[in-house]
Amino acid sequence: MTRRCGIAAFHKVQINANYATIWRRQSQPAMKVRSLLALTITVALVPVVVFFAAPLSRLVEAERDAGVRTMQEAARATSLAVDAQWYEVIGLVRATSNSSKLESNQMAAFGGKARSLVQGRSSYLVLFDHEGQQLINTSMSTDAALPDTRAVSGARIASVLAADKPVISNLLRAPGAGRHVVALEFPVHLPENRNYVMSYGFDAALLAQALPPPAPGRAVFRIYDREGRLIQSNRLPTGAGSQAPAPIAAAIQAGDAGLIRTGDGTYTVLARSALTGWWIAMSETTEKVDGTTERTVLLSGLGLALALALAIATAWALSDRIAKAIAQTSAAARALGAGAGGPPQRSGIDELDHLEESVYQANRLLTEAALERERLLVQTQQAREVADAQNRAKDEFLAMLGHELRNPMAPISMAAHMLSLPNLDAAKLRHAGQVIGRQVEHMNRLVNDLLDVSRVTRGLISLERKPLRIQSIIASAIEQASSIVEAGRHELVVETGKQPLWISGDAIRLVQVLTNLLVNAVKYSPPDTRIVMRAGADGDTLVLSVADNGTGIEPDLLPRIFDLFSQGARRPDRAAGGLGLGLALVRKIVELHGGTVTASSEGAGKGSCFTIRLPMCDAPVETQLA
């Protein structure tokens, strides 16, 4: 009874839910697909249109700012060109002021030199004494009497001498000539408290050389002095001496270098020269400055209108096709509901025909994509860690290489200096030669190690294999490393047994391997310690080891001891130098011989042991017969 009540209650709830769903559907206003798409596009495009104005406004401002910056840079470049012309004048006047004729007070001779200087230059030179009296004036004839200019020029000359630096004038009108000039007044201080001011003036029209050449449609450049008077322009007539237009004059007075609209259809920017205090004005037409901006606005508006038209046309076409497909699917669904449905008919839209399959495929693809992203992320992280490690190894290697190549320089330099000393006795000469020889040998070992590593890593090394008795290889290695072992006062113990042990290999490379292991043991062992080299057979394998009781190997370094550039901690005196290549070469050469090399250590300060295992071979026939 209870179960039946429960089932009845369940069906009642289900029926009520179905009725509630039907009621909600019936109570909501129905919309066609075409209307829904139109509403969707409208809702999507309205914010685009509304917010289109803000970035467009910023774009317009950016375009204008770019144009203004270009004009300002051109004005500053022209200002630098004008300054460069003045620097040439300053250099010319400074060179003239250093004349020996002036220093020796030979005024007549100096006057002749001054006249030859200004000849053909459209310029003049006047020499004032400290009171402002003219002593030389190249614009007057040599026999003309110079006027008394102390009252007129005395204060100006005194201020130039007090400032003790070149002073560049505003625009001046040359007396009696009717032409505009500019002048440089240069203080000259000579012994015996003789002070002069050399005034060098030239035609203001010469400043046109620093301005860009005039051309129709190009910008206009003008030079204004500190009072706002026009000095020169690259457009004829220049109008030299005229006052700047009111907007430009106001900007000059305020020190404003921003964009100025002059009212005659042009924009102007100013650049002030720190040397002269003059102003360079560059003017462009408003069409050139605002034309790009206006075109940008027009093109953007056309693009937006085109996008809207395409969106509406696309929505209309899609809505018609979707409406027909939905109507066909709806008819098929009604037919299935009535029990008269047959095989499914294609609606022409795959999304409606394969909805379930699409969802499944989408889910599968998303899962695979997530896994792929995770895999790529892991690979990227690993690659980054490898790249960082390689970069650190490269930096450490370059630092070590620089240090190891620099170390021999000091002894070589000292020995070379000793050789340059006079009366050097034979003992010191021999000592200097020995120092140079040792350091050159050290550098040669470094370079050879680098070359060997390069050949091995690129697979360019080849082995000349032949049967070798390991005892002879050990003897050769000890001979090569004997000087280093003796220098460190180490006791070298060799245990090879009396039975000959034969391997097939390259004698030179195997000697190099053992020598590197011996040198490594010496580097990381304190003086007066023992180094033991053992060789023996383990079945068909030769086991060769080099053990020391030196500094040992840190546990974190042990797994990568044979990697390139790996080194143990150095002592403060850097006695254990090198580039960290020796053990890497050992492993590569041993592997080329078909063997293995391992390192073991109980920790720092407990020594280390390097063990090589190589396949053995039979003794040569001639040795067996003997």
Automatic annotation (TrEMBL):
It comes from the Bacteria. GO terms for cellular component: plasma membrane. Residues 400-618 form the Histidine kinase domain. It is an enzyme of class 2 (transferase). GO terms for molecular function: phosphorelay sensor kinase activity. It is a multi-pass membrane protein. Its EC number is 2.7.13.3. It catalyses: ATP + protein L-histidine = ADP + protein N-phospho-L-histidine. InterPro entries: HATPase_C_sf, HATPase_dom, His_kinase_dom, HisK_dim/P_dom, HisK_dim/P_sf, Sig_transdc_His_kin-like_C. Pfam families: HATPase_c, HisKA. The keyword Flavoprotein does not apply. Keywords: Kinase, Membrane, Phosphoprotein, Transferase, Transmembrane, Transmembrane helix. PROSITE patterns: HIS_KIN. It is found in: Cell inner membrane. The chain crosses the membrane at residues 33-54. This is histidine kinase. It comes from Pseudoduganella rivuli. The lineage of its organism: Bacteria, Pseudomonadati, Pseudomonadota, Betaproteobacteria, Burkholderiales.
